[in-house]
């Protein structure tokens, strides 16, 4: 239900019609939330968090992200039951620290995530993962995101709606958040 502002020129300036770079300002960093063309079908935009950049060695073992041999710290914040009317879908909320960028992740401890070991991110690519780790189609399943597919950096929520079959409401507390 969130509508986002995206800094399309956060990383590079591209030719409007032909694509291709005019100038590169910076590279995505671990922890950045980016919008990119879905590598499997580029007619769709995806949004995910950068967890690793070119040259990084990445492992993901038992819900734990390991970059260049270092476990990314996770601190348990709370345990939830999702949806609220269920007694079987326990979710744990952690604060993960990606090289100084702290953010929340959701993990279903009962779910089986595929482990992988020592995957090297190629130069010019990034590895992305969703913050809802067990319910995210991301680099673990379809590979890396090349720089040329990055649309920009997610910046701010400009509108947020809660839309169900019976109700439409504005989530005022989310509007304007970074």
Would you give an account of this structure?
- This protein has 178 residues and is mostly beta strands.
- It has one helix and 16 strands.
- A hairpin with a 2-residue loop joins strand 7 and strand 8 (70-71).
Protein topology:
Blueprint: E1 2-7, E2 12-14, E3 21-24, E4 33-37, E5 45-53, E6 57-61, E7 64-67, E8 70-71, E9 74-81, E10 90-98, E11 101-107, E12 116-120, E13 125-129, H1 139-142, E14 145-146, E15 150-163, E16 168-170
Antiparallel strand pairs: 1-15, 2-3, 4-5, 4-15, 5-13, 6-7, 6-12, 7-8, 9-10, 10-11, 13-14, 15-16
Describe, in short, the structure shown.
By secondary structure, the protein is mainly β. 2% of the residues lie in helices and 51% in strands.
Features:
mainly beta, 51% strand, single chain, seven-stranded antiparallel beta sheet, 178 residues, 16 strands, 2% helix, four-stranded antiparallel beta sheet, 1 helix
Distance between the termini: 15 Å
Helix/strand-derived category reads: mainly beta
The helical percent reads under 10%
Uncertain spans: none
Radius of gyration, CA atoms, in whole angstroms: 17 Å
Alpha plus pi helix count: 1
Looking at the structure, what is the overall shape? globular
Order of helices and strands: EEEEEEEEEEEEEHEEE
Number of strands: 16
State the major sheet. Answer: 7 strands, antiparallel
Q: What percentage of amino acids are in beta strands?
A: over 45%
Overall pLDDT metric: 89
């Amino acid at each position: 239900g969130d509508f986002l502002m995206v800094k399309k020129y956060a990383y590079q300036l591209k030719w409007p019609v032909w694509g291709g770079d005019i100038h590169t300002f910076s590279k995505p960093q671990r922890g950045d939330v980016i919008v990119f063309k879905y590598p499997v079908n580029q007619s769709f935009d995806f949004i995910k968090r950068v967890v690793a950049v070119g040259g990084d060695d990445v492992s993901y073992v038992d819900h734990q992200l390991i970059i260049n041999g270092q476990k990314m710290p996770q601190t348990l914040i709370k345990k939830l039951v999702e949806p609220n009317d269920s007694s079987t879908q326990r979710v744990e909320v952690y604060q993960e620290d990606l090289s100084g960028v702290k953010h929340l992740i959701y993990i279903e401890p009962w779910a089986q995530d595929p482990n992988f070991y020592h995957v090297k991110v190629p130069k010019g690519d990034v590895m992305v993962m969703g913050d809802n780790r067990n319910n995210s189609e991301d680099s673990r399943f379809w590979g890396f995101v090349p720089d040329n597919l990055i649309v920009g950096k997610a910046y701010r929520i400009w509108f947020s709606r809660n839309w169900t079959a019976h109700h439409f409401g504005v989530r005022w507390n989310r509007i304007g958040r970074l």
